[in-house]
Amino acid sequence: ETGVTQSPTHLIKTRGQQVTLRCSSQSGHNTVSWYQQALGQGPQFIFQYYREEENGRGNFPPRFSGLQFPNYSSELNVNALELDDSALYLCASSNSASSYNEQVFGPGTRLTVL
Amino acid sequence: AQSVTQLGSHVSVSEGALVLLRCNYSSSVPPYLFWYVQYPNQGLQLLLKYTSAATLVKGINGFEAEFKKSETSFHLTKPSAHMSDAAEYFCAAEGGFQKLVFGTGTRLLVSP
Predict the structure, then answer these.
(1) pLDDT band at B37 (very low <50, low <70, confident <90, very high)
(2) B92 with B100: CB under 8 angstroms?
(3) What is the CA radius of gyration of chain A?
(4) Closest Cβ opposite residue A105 in set B41, B43, B51
(5) Second label for B78, Cα 20 to 30 Å away, from A35, A77, A81, B19?
(6) For residues A16 and A21, what is the distance between their CA atoms, to the nearest angstrom?
(7) CB B59 within 8 A of CB B48
(8) Cβ pair B32:A100 closer than 8 A
């Protein structure tokens, strides 16, 4: 089975710019979650998408938005980038039918905001 | 709200020694619990999960964890450390709506 893939691997942006990160979910999974992992911290939940709708959101401002497509792939968009947005962004896919939410993580996208 | 605490940001062991990484959760209702490992510049890999089926959970690479409700703990152990175990380890709990709540991580250092 194909795992979770993310693109790009690394990205450098300047403050105020916009960025789009992409994620392809594992085969058979219909739910995608996004996490932000700042340096030296644990991942923080941004939001989750199920059937192309946002299905839960963490404590992140509206300039963090996302999409899920009919093939269950997903995008994370961040507008008006701030220096504190520099982090590893992790995408995880899961099967909503699973009762214990085993999420499979991708390798992440390292975003640097200058 | 669910929270996860990992005691010790760094743990150092010698190769062949016992590994013990500590994790406590906050919920009065035992949630699903997970341990993930993260190697440098990589994503998270699931080591094991607790789903209320058994209190002692065996995972990959010789790791296991014991769920103790009375202590609200889910500590990770491995009888004999290997150099390849050096990595960052994260404990996580399900926090509702299928989101995971992570601890701050413990970096395991293994010396020869």
Answers:
(1) very high
(2) yes
(3) 13
(4) B43
(5) A35
(6) 16
(7) yes
(8) yes
CB distance A41–B98 less than 8 Å? no
Q: Which residues of A touch B (CB under 8 A)?
A: 4, 31, 33, 35, 40-45, 48, 55-56, 58, 90, 92, 94, 96, 99-108, 110
pLDDT exceeds cutoff 80 at B28: no
Using CA atoms, how far apart are residues B6 and B105, in angstroms rounded to an integer?
6
The tokens describing A22, both together, are 């992409």
Residues of A in contact with B95 (CB under 8 A): 45
CA distance A49 to B36: 22
Query: How is residue A14 written in tokens?
Result: 């300047």
State pLDDT tens for residues A23-73: 999 988 999 999 999 998 999 999 999 889 998 899 999 999 999 999 999
